[in-house]
Specification:
Elements: H1 27-46, H2 56-61, H3 73-98, H4 107-131, H5 137-153, H6 155-171, H7 177-197, H8 204-210, H9 212-220, H10 237-248, H11 251-276, H12 279-290, H13 293-299, H14 305-324, H15 336-349, H16 357-371, H17 379-397, H18 399-408, H19 417-420
Helix pairs in contact: 3-4, 3-5, 3-11, 4-6, 4-10, 4-11, 5-6, 7-11, 7-12, 9-10, 10-11, 11-12, 11-14, 14-15, 14-16, 15-16, 15-17, 16-17
Length: 427
């Protein structure tokens, strides 16, 4: 019989000593002015709105097209299947990495950490299948089925208590009228991105390599060198997810996979904001993030920046959870929460080379954690933690440099060719 788990309220979990600088009432007019300036500037530079977006004529003229959304029910179902697989596999991995009784992780944190690990595992597994020459839909369905069966087999042991705790944590949420206004704004942003995601892909970067590289791999039946496409040498964590989507369905599914990472990013932002400050802070963080025009554009395409942001946020959040804990007990070299952050940092670095700066930021947080202690102890434990963090990050990131060494002779292809040698890039 499974042991009953005592659910700790989110308010009792360790948080950094952060206090709001001013009342959130000031945020509403400041955000309104900021949004107005952004929209006016964007319209003047691009002429983006040929018609006013809320024009009744615009909406009525396209109302007859609303039924077309039902044509995408299969892709929506597959997107849910991918998320369910990631949740099942990620939940098992989270227990292995962070431990069953990790006091740093709340129930809402557990949900999004599980999803992040699951998507990361799916991506790296797809890379492995590609090197084995197993790029076909039967292999993908077998993988998804195996993950779901593993989750079902361990449901009562690994998921039931957590889900019960999650429902209790969600039931404790209280929303003010301002929170409901923010929820409405979030809904409008997300709805816009969702319907945009159902349209055909025309984003240049997607056609060149976000979808171009996966499509080439599928045609070859395996991961193969693309000597004429330097972008294929970039880390491809997000693109491996698109490879699975293209094998199962089409580019719309790939767009929905990227869209789902955006939803989970918003959930992670909310969880962090609520834990460090308040429900309002979490929702406001989501609105500010969605208010960036390029975010909506990227969210609705098969880009990779939103997915990269999510993995980077997971890395930063888990590292902050580790840093929020008082030193001493439970903060050894092989700390489970630090291990989790290192894994997410490696996955973030696997989305794009620019995310390698996440590692530098992580070392900075660890250094600050040590030197900000009122009474500094021996430096060696902090150095061991930094070495552990860097080693795990490098191990998770390693498949991409190894792939480039195999195909191009340069681990960071197409950059630093003079340093590492290998295939040269003609400017």
């Amino acid at each position: 019989m499974a042991k009953k788990k005592n659910v700790k309220p989110a308010s009792d979990l360790p948080v950094p000593d952060i206090l709001p600088r001013f009342s959130f009432w000031l945020m509403l007019p400041l955000f309104a002015v900021w949004a107005l300036i952004v929209l006016i500037n964007y319209q003047q530079k691009t002429g983006f709105f040929s018609l006013f977006p809320l024009s009744p004529l615009l909406w009525l003229s396209h109302l007859s097209e609303a039924g077309r959304v039902f044509a995408y029910v299969p892709q929506l179902a597959y997107a849910v299947l991918f998320a369910a697989f990631s949740f099942a596999v990620g939940g098992i991995l989270l227990k292995v990495l962070a431990g069953a009784e990790n006091k740093d992780i709340g129930e809402l944190d557990w949900l999004f950490f599980s999803l992040g690990l699951g998507y990361g595992a799916l991506s790296l597994t797809m890379l492995g299948l590609g090197f084995l020459g197993l790029y076909n839909k039967y292999a993908v369905f077998s993988l998804l089925g195996a993950g779901l069966l593993a989750g079902a087999a361990r449901f009562r042991r690994d998921f039931y208590g957590r889900l019960k705790g999650l429902s209790l944590e969600l039931a404790q949420l209280r929303f003010t009228w301002f929170d409901r206004l923010l929820l409405f704004v979030i809904f409008m942003f997300v709805a816009l991105a969702f319907f945009w995601a159902l349209s055909p892909e025309i984003f240049f970067d997607s056609l060149v390599y976000h979808l171009g590289a996966p499509n080439y791999y599928i045609r070859e039946g395996r991961v193969a060198a693309m000597a004429y496409n330097i972008c294929s040498g970039f880390p491809l964590v997000v693109q491996m997810l698109y490879t699975a989507g293209l094998l199962v369905s089409d580019d719309v599914l790939a767009r929905l996979i990227h869209f789902s990472t955006g939803l989970f990013l918003l959930g992670t932002l909310f969880a962090a904001g609520r834990r460090y400050a308040s429900v309002t802070a979490g929702l406001l963080a989501c609105v500010i993030f969605l208010g960036i025009p390029m975010v909506i554009m990227n969210l609705a395409t098969t880009g990779m920046d939103v997915g990269s942001c999510w993995f980077t946020l997971l890395a930063a959040y888990s590292l902050l959870l580790f840093s929020a804990r008082d030193g001493g007990e439970g903060s050894g070299t092989w700390d489970r929460t630090l291990l989790l952050s290192a894994v997410f940092t490696g996955l973030a670095c696997g989305t794009k080379y620019q995310a390698l700066f996440t590692v530098i930021a992580g070392f900075g947080v660890l250094a600050y954690r040590h030197f900000s202690e009122p009474v500094r102890g021996d430096l060696r434990p902090a150095l061991k933690q930094a070495l552990f963090y860097g080693a795990v990050t490098g191990l998770v990131f390693a498949p991409w440099p190894l792939k480039n060494m195999l195909f191009h002779g340069n681990p960071l292809y197409p950059f630093f060719a003079k340093l590492f040698g290998g295939q040269q890039v003609d400017p």
